């Protein structure tokens, strides 16, 4: 069913199930063409690459290692190196790897530097052209394998975190193999997982939401609730949890592409332009004060959606579903990522607030409300 839904949604072929990485080599062999691999260094040092290496290396012309969210300059350098030599791309890794590969695939077919096409700062629309891409996520959080945007980050020159975006940028093939999550550190599992939750949750509460997107989001949220407490277990329950989170992440990508996101991402996207914090952790830290705000909300649509969510996910009715959800998320987390010491200085806070927005939230949040969210999520120090 998920494959049919995916094809209806984005013309993407979705291969899923534990061990589905085994389908990569037959896919490449069925249509041999110059193929470039994007991956993280951990993949090259891990057991999956060791198993695939001999055959995979015969089917690719090289690889690029992605160590962080790619900048426009890095993408331009890759394009310069490989233009005219690559006809297809494979991306195996977390969200940063997938986004870098998506940006590279698109820019290989565009003549101008990457920054010219970026949302927020660019002056040129992207065209409906990109190289074919096979996306294999090794984390469950961003849902990048299902989205039409490639996130690009420059924290030094133009200070921006923005997307290249077009429906054709959805990878042609996604391989969702939950076994690739095995062995990931608890901190990675939990911060990626809360990113998936935030995508689903903000899309569920979006002003652009429809019955279709809300029901998709609830499906993903149910998978998340099953997965969240057991992500790191080394048994059948852990295997089922990781598979559920992989599905939640993919559905989060579908939902955010359809209904958009809210104030959490309206802040997180700007913070990510100046601080090298893990995006999932940023979203998770902002989620908890947002849930406090939500608990105080009298907006009728938010109230109704939260009551429905409570009933659908937990089978109960609670006078304060947002507070119940916050407590459940914190109590069931495999590690308390929000307690790690991180700081923002007051100048950084003002920079973020000058650019942050409520995106598709049902309520337009004030600058003071967003300031309070930041102050509850991080320790604020004096400007340097």
From TrEMBL:
<dbReference type="InterPro" id="IPR039697">
    <property type="entry name" value="Alcohol_dehydrogenase_Fe"/>
</dbReference>
<protein>
    <submittedName>
        <fullName>Iron-containing alcohol dehydrogenase</fullName>
    </submittedName>
</protein>
<dbReference type="GO" id="GO:0046872">
    <property type="term" value="F:metal ion binding"/>
</dbReference>
<dbReference type="Pfam" id="PF00465">
    <property type="entry name" value="Fe-ADH"/>
</dbReference>
<keyword id="KW-0560">Oxidoreductase</keyword>
<feature type="domain" description="Alcohol dehydrogenase iron-type/glycerol dehydrogenase GldA">
    <location>
        <begin position="12"/>
        <end position="177"/>
    </location>
</feature>
<dbReference type="InterPro" id="IPR056798">
    <property type="entry name" value="ADH_Fe_C"/>
</dbReference>
<dbReference type="Pfam" id="PF25137">
    <property type="entry name" value="ADH_Fe_C"/>
</dbReference>
<dbReference type="GO" id="GO:0004022">
    <property type="term" value="F:alcohol dehydrogenase (NAD+) activity"/>
</dbReference>
<dbReference type="InterPro" id="IPR001670">
    <property type="entry name" value="ADH_Fe/GldA"/>
</dbReference>
<feature type="domain" description="Fe-containing alcohol dehydrogenase-like C-terminal">
    <location>
        <begin position="190"/>
        <end position="318"/>
    </location>
</feature>
<comment type="similarity">
    <text>Belongs to the iron-containing alcohol dehydrogenase family.</text>
</comment>
């Amino acid at each position: 069913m998920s494959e049919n839904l995916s094809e209806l949604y984005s013309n993407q072929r979705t291969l899923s199930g534990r061990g589905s990485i085994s389908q990569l080599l037959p896919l490449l062999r069925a249509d041999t063409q110059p193929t470039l691999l994007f991956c993280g260094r951990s993949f090259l040092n891990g057991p999956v690459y060791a198993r695939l290496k001999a055959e995979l290396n015969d089917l690719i012309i090289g690889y690029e290692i992605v160590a962080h969210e790619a900048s426009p300059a890095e993408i331009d350098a890759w394009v310069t190196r490989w233009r005219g030599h690559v006809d297809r791309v494979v991306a195996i890794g977390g969200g940063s790897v997938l986004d870098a590969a998506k940006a590279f695939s698109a820019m290989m077919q565009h003549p101008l530097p990457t920054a010219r096409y970026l949302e927020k700062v660019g002056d040129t629309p992207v065209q409906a052209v990109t190289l074919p891409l096979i996306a294999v996520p090794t984390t469950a959080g961003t849902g990048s394998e299902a989205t039409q945007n490639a996130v690009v980050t420059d924290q030094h020159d133009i200070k921006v975190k923005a997307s290249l975006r077009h429906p054709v940028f959805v990878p042609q093939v996604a391989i969702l193999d939950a076994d690739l999550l095995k062995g990931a550190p608890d901190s990675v599992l939990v911060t990626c997982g809360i990113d998936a939750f935030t995508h689903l949750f903000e899309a569920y509460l979006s002003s652009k939401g429809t019955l279709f997107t809300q029901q998709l989001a609830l499906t993903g949220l149910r998978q998340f609730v099953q997965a969240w407490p057991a992500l790191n277990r080394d048994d059948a329950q852990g295997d089922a949890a990781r598979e559920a989170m992989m599905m939640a992440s993919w559905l989060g990508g579908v939902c955010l592409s359809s209904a958009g996101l809210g104030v959490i991402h309206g802040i997180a996207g700007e913070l990510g332009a100046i601080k090298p914090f893990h995006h999932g952790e940023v979203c998770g830290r902002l989620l908890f004060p947002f849930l406090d705000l939500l608990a105080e909300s009298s907006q009728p649509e938010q109230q109704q959606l939260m009551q429905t969510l409570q009933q659908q996910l937990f089978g109960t009715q609670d006078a304060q579903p947002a507070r119940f959800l916050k407590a459940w998320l914190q109590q069931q987390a495999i590690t308390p990522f929000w307690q790690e010491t991180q700081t923002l200085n007051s100048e950084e806070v003002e920079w973020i607030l000058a650019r942050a927005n409520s995106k598709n939230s049902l309520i337009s949040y004030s600058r003071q409300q967003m300031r309070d969210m930041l102050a509850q999520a991080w320790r604020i120090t004096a400007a340097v």
